[in-house]
Amino acid sequence: MSREFRSGPIPGWYALLILGLFFLGPFAIMLNFSFYHKITGGLYEPAFVLENYARLMSPFFGRILLMSTGLCALASLAAVIFGFTLTYCISNMSRRGRTFWLILFVSLLSLSEVVTGFAWSMLFSRTAGLGGWLYALGIFDQPRALSPGFWALLTALTFICIPFVVLVLFPPLTRLPRDWIEAARTMGATPAKAIATVIIPTVRPALLAAFILSFIYSLGSYILPIMLGKPRHWTLSVHITDQALYQSNFPFAAALSVFLMVASLLLIALVYRLQKNFE
Amino acid sequence: MGWLRNLYLGIMFTMFVAPIVVVTGVSFNEKKQLLFPPQGFSLEWYQKAFQESSWLSAMTTSFFLAFCAALFSLSLAVPLALYCWRRLNWQSKILRGLGLLPFMLPPVVSALGFLVYWSSVGGYGQMYAAVVSHGVFLVTLPMVMLLIGLDSVDRNLIDAARMCGASRAKVYLTVIVPVLRPFLIFGFCFAFVLSFNEYIISFMLIGFTHETLPVKIFNSLRYGYTPIMAVVSTFFVLLTVGLLCAVAWFGDLPRLFGAWSSEHD
Questions:
Q1: How far apart are the C-alpha atoms of A227 and B227, rounded to whole Å?
Q2: CA atoms of B234 and B192, how far apart (whole Å)
Q3: I need a surface site. Which of A11, A113, A238, A264 has the fewest CB within 10 A?
Q4: pLDDT digits over A1-12, tens only?
């Protein structure tokens, strides 16, 4: 493409203007809000105080942070293990097989969290799900609901992260030369050994990137902790919404949100570094 | 080894679809109960979901919001993608980063940003605030789609057309737009599906004035479970899978998701 065509006019300023006004603008206002002073009864006044950030040091916030990071790290770890094995199987399939699984995963990812949350709570219910089936099989002595609870939440969270992990791992795994595995096999390695010694070391940065991105993704989950967990399992996302809408504490919600944003941006920067090194 | 792999894939597939199968089953219950396997078979709840005015109005709101937001999103994605494709300067890197950012941050961060923004400048609770916010928030996928599409434009063709005296506008109309058309449609479909399913931004911005379908489902959970929620959930699954199948049918989905080797199969 010639330099002359490259430099023709494009309304890039329009996109920049809209994104600046309606995407960066909200972040600027949110940052501003996080320094406001809260007066009782849902009111606040413009100020420049650090009291909202000081609350990030409180045991209340410490518990939320521990629960959120622990839960999301466990779910992402499980999702990377299942997601990697699935992606490996899918990348060896024909084009039709790949398309089938990709449609499944893209659909699951696009599906509203309300719908997936409702569906999982049905599956864990006493009347329509596992609780009743296990009773019918004689494993439970009475039908009971499996949610809300930590394990129900962890399972559902893992299963919304797996499709995400697969889509992150799909490009690097499908681009791996297939004869590497064959070479390892001819030299006498078992398939498991070939994967462990050839594939995993090659895609290790991608696996780490998938884990971090899945961690951020699961931190964003809002409905699942409410529908499948008890209030003590609520994650940061739920508390931000709770503070903003039900406690009417915009300044503290904004401070929590700024914290979550900065943490996510640092993690994204880390992923970016990893991918640069990988290439 | 083959059977072990198939067993694993089978178990995983079951785990992915089991919740959806249960929901669909529940929607066929005869009485107002959430039982699986369903007791009796009736389509009564389907009829109710499409007759009750509160569900119908939520459906209309969702369709309207998703349609407008997807259009707005596309109108942003086109200049963004064209700019990033044609200019290779630092500004294009910033624009690309801005386009990718909404997708990477936890949605609640953007949602709270939109909430404080629209309640400060006015527009909180208004439909247009939700349309603009969704449009900006969902710009990533259409942008990425269009960038993939632009990558497949034959650059020699552009130079040839220019040398033969075609104006810029003519080059766009005859060389670039035909290649880009499917990607424009996929980008629109994707943004539509995501906006239709989006919960947290709709809830924060217009949750108390214009109920969208996901917000309506969630709100009605508090007043007790009815099979109507299962019906609407089934409807969501059908719509989402249907639109994405259409995208996959017309476009090469594995390639869209970055497996460049798929044409060798």
A1: 17
A2: 18
A3: A11
A4: 666 666 666 777
- List B residues 5-34 in contact with A (Cβ-Cβ < 8 A): 5, 8-9, 12-13, 15-16, 18-20, 22-23, 25-26, 33-34
- Which tokens in the block code for residue A73? 């790290």
B169 touches chain A (CB under 8 A): no
Instruction: Flag whether pLDDT at A257 surpasses 90.
Output: yes
In chain B, residues with a C-beta closer than 8 Å to the C-beta of A235 are: none
Judged by CB atoms closer than 8 Å, whether chains meet at A119 and B133 is answered as: no
Determine the residue of chain B that is closest to A176 in CA distance.
Answer: B261
Which among B95, B115, B239 is the top mutation candidate for probing chain A, defined by the most A β-carbons within 10 Å of its own β-carbon? B115
Beta strand spans in chain A (E): 37-39, 43-45
Question: What is the per-residue pLDDT across A61-117, written as a single tens digit (0 to 9) for each?
Answer: 888 899 999 999 999 999 999 999 999 888 888 888 888 898 889 888 888 888 888
For A76, the token pair is 């992402």
Mean pLDDT of B28-49: 81
Neighbours of A36 (CB within 10 A): 21
pLDDT tens for A175-188 read 777 777 778 878 87
Listed ranges A105-114, A197-206, B70-79, B141-150; the one with the highest mean pLDDT: B70-79
Of A84, A271, A106, nearest to A170 by C-alpha is A84
pTM of the model: 0.88
CA angle at A27 for the pair A25 and A29, rounded to the nearest 5°: 70
Report phi then psi at A143, rounded to 5. -65, 130
Q: Phi-psi category of B224—alpha, beta or left, where left has phi over 0 and alpha has psi -120 to 50?
A: left
Residue with tokens 């349609």: B67
Q: Mean pLDDT over residues B15-22, rounded?
A: 88
Please provide the average confidence, as pLDDT, over all residues in chain B: 85
Q: Are A91 and A170 in contact (CB under 8 A)?
A: yes
Interatomic CA distance for residues B134 and B76, integer angstroms: 12
Return all residues near A226 (Cβ < 8 A) that are at least 6 apart: A117, A234, A238
Of A115, A175, A250, the CB nearest to B237: A115
Give residues 132 to 151 of B whose Cβ lies within 8 Å of A: 132-133, 136-137, 139
> Model ipTM?
0.86
Name chain B contacts of A94, Cβ cutoff 8 Å.
265
Go through chain B and tell me how many residues it has.
Answer: 265
DSSP string covering A169-226: HHHHHHTS-THHHHHHHHTT--HHHHIIIIIHHHHHHHHHHHHHHHHHHHHT--HHHH
Q: How far apart are CA A170 and CA B254, in angstroms?
A: 9
